Amino acid sequence: MVKIAVVVGSTRPGRRSKQVADWVLERAAAKGGAEYELLDVADYKLPLLDEPMPPSMGNYQHEHTKTWARAVAEFDGYIFVTAEYNHSVPGALKNALDFLYAEWNNKAAGFVSYGSAGGVRAVENLRLISGELQMADVRAQVALPFATEFEGFTTFTPSATAEENLDVLIEQIVAWSTALETIRH
């Protein structure tokens, strides 16, 4: 059975991404088809990229990078939960992605985003980044606008449409993670 990480992509105090990620994790676990686990970027306290060699060389020098690499390598696919900051991804998520290379390769990526416009511009950026990291991004996406999915911009309350969209995303991420297994091994 494939293992999928639900990646919490914001480290900001008062972040909404943990609420959203908990919802994704709960719904995915109920749906089944894979093992699911939360992977919170905040737990790794990564500094700004400080490796002297490019990640594509796989020659990690720092223990924080090695720890992050071991955590990321465990998974066959990822559902990234991201906010949209200034039409892009949170800096902490971009930094966490940039630290590694081979650990992301030949794995599936799906995106759940939130923001004033549902976070769609952050996902546009993530699709480009994931392609460079040799991840296969699935078509389904969950976009959560503050106006309709958050009470008072703080409390996450998913709509029926968001739940339906998440179900499709989960099905696609499991299918692609499974299909890419032959390439990974």
Automatic annotation (TrEMBL):
Transmembrane segments: none annotated. Signal peptide: none annotated. Residues 2-148 form the NADPH-dependent FMN reductase-like domain. It comes from the Bacteria. This is NAD(P)H-dependent oxidoreductase. It comes from Paenarthrobacter aromaticivorans.
